[in-house]
Amino acid sequence: MLFTASLAHAQSPGAGVAPAPAATGAPAPATTGAPAPAATGAPAATGAAAAPAAPAATGAAAATPAATGAAAAEPATGNDAMAARLAAAEKRSAELEKRLEALEEAQAAPEQDDSKDLFRIYGFVDVGVQRTWVPENSGLAAALPQANATNFVVGNLNLYLDAQPTDHFRFLGELRFTTAPGGSPVPADAATLPPGVVGRTTTQPYGTFDSTAIALGSPTTYGGLVSIERAHIDWTRFNLFKVRVGQFFTPIGIYNVDHGSPVLITAAIPYFITSRLFPTRQTGIMIYGSTFTGPWELGYNAYVSNGRNEDAPFAFDDNRGFGGRLHASYEDPGKMALKLGASFIASSSRDWVADYKVGEFNPDIHATWSFQEYTGAGDVSLDIGTTRLRAEAAVVRVVYDEGKRQGGFGVYAPDAWKTSTYAVAAHRLDFLDMEPFVIGAALHAPFYGHDTMFQLGGGLNFYITPDVTLRTQVLRTIMTALRDQPPGVPEIEDFHTTSALARLILAF
């Protein structure tokens, strides 16, 4: 359901009515478009030569029989004809005055124009069930307390705040309501550790005591965080040159921009996105636009931002991030749609610490790790009839600053090349409005243990109504190490996981 808040204004005069300000004294034109027949035995109705009984304050001319809709009748003569014309003129003048007042009120208050949607709220929600099978007592099992158990879940609850109070300016905000951090692993109090245990994580309670509760029977409140997915103001005066300021999704590829559950093919987001191989959101300023050349639409994005900052949405120094995207689209309605894109990102990231030392008044503010990264990516989207193909690939170069590598205990992240890709194929069937799909993905990066990941899966979508979809998916993941281990170091065993999920998605 779409909620629209708008203000109504008075309607302008209807079709076929020519408003004339009463004070001008100009004659009112006939609405039939035919010349008015001359009246016999009466003075011409010019607005100035009317009989003394005519109210001069109206300033409106006497209407001819054509204006009264009685053109087919025989013309009247004498005083009766004059009285009829004066009565018609008075009625016409009163109607025009009322409509003119309404028009002037609407012009004096343009913000009450109901042709604009001043503010709209819409969004989507997905709920369902899932299970992930991982090796018991593994590092992944420690990071996912919900693993190896079947769970009913609320996946996403996203609201869009869409406002366009004036021409060429628009605000778009997207909020996601989450249950985090409830149930997330957090460090336990060291004082509570049993003998022989040097560290422990436990789940953070989902419910929190509410000391402000008035009802004695509800002292606990349940809830989580509100995530700002995006919030930006756009200036859209020209198609070829638009400006966006605020927090926006990095314009790279397909899934990162069209991330909402209703528009995706798969139930699970590809690891291409969730691996955070590149910054998925940025805060800054972007220019973008598009134009047509023949059957092709050509577009661009270019931006400067705070860069990637894993610890905060703002920058710790003046090293900016920047990037852009070029794309071309071709569409033959009902037959084929093709979109090609290429993206580039140059960004930096670092942490921020302040060390206070005995005997020193000022703290030592610095970074313990910092790096630069350069990302190149390409994507293709192809629809042929009811068959949909999507593919993306990215290459990332990471270079650490001298002495600022992440890690510890003798293990530090190296300068590296990282690559990632995925491909999805889906075909819509008439039978039950189903859409089977398959997906394959791969990622290679110098992790501390495994350095390569492969994924293979598939699923079935059911399009119940235009606003309700059921997506199902099974995904098999294999983590392996392709690099040779140094002499004396045991080979790293492959790591396998399987996930199954179903999501009922509703857009509103």
Write the layout of secondary structure elements.
Elements: E1 3-5, H1 78-108, E2 119-133, H2 139-143, E3 151-166, E4 169-177, E5 185-187, E6 201-203, E7 207-209, E8 220-222, E9 226-235, E10 242-249, H3 271-274, E11 281-293, E12 296-305, E13 321-332, E14 336-350, E15 353-355, E16 364-366, E17 370-384, E18 387-400, E19 407-408, E20 411-412, E21 416-427, E22 434-444, E23 452-465, E24 468-480, E25 495-507
Antiparallel strand pairs: 1-2, 2-3, 2-25, 3-4, 4-9, 5-6, 7-8, 9-10, 10-11, 11-12, 12-13, 13-14, 14-17, 15-16, 17-18, 18-21, 19-20, 21-22, 22-23, 23-24, 24-25
Task: List its traits.
508 residues, globular, 8% helix, two-stranded antiparallel sheet, single chain
